[in-house]
Amino acid sequence: MSKTDLAAVKAGDTLPPLTLPPVNRTMLALFAGASGDHNAIHIDIDYARKAGMADVFAHGMLSMAWLGRLLTQWVDQRRIRDFGVRFTGITHLGHEITCTGRVTEVFEADGEKRARLEIQTANQYGEAKVLGDAVVAL
């Protein structure tokens, strides 16, 4: 589906997947700076180990940001009506994340045609890390 054929969207359609490079320390440091989330569990290996983790791991909101990119590569951000997630697993260093989405329903609300979507991130092993849903105006 491209941004130009939204009138043809139907339940069962899938969004073009978004595959990201492997998570690394630079990515986490850059996200910490961009987001203002400098929680040491994500950027300081000594702190992470003291907390019982083997190493640092990705911010949950980084995964949500990737899902936002998945949506905005499909529709203009002004069309997003609802967007929420729940975190189901830790995204570790080296994970290669792919974001996917599927239309579950097309309906009308407030005078506009909308699509309800199931979205998720999963690593290269197929393990879901973030599950979410969104509603977009078509």
UniProtKB/TrEMBL annotation:
SUPFAM superfamilies reported for this sequence: Thioesterase/thiol ester dehydrase-isomerase (SSF54637)
Pfam families per UniProt: MaoC_dehydratas
Domain of life: Bacteria
Listed InterPro entries: HotDog_dom_sf, MaoC-like_dom
Location of the MaoC-like domain: 22-110
Name recorded for this polypeptide: MaoC-like domain-containing protein
Organism whose genome encodes this protein: Cupriavidus numazuensis
Source organism phylogeny: Bacteria, Pseudomonadati, Pseudomonadota, Betaproteobacteria, Burkholderiales
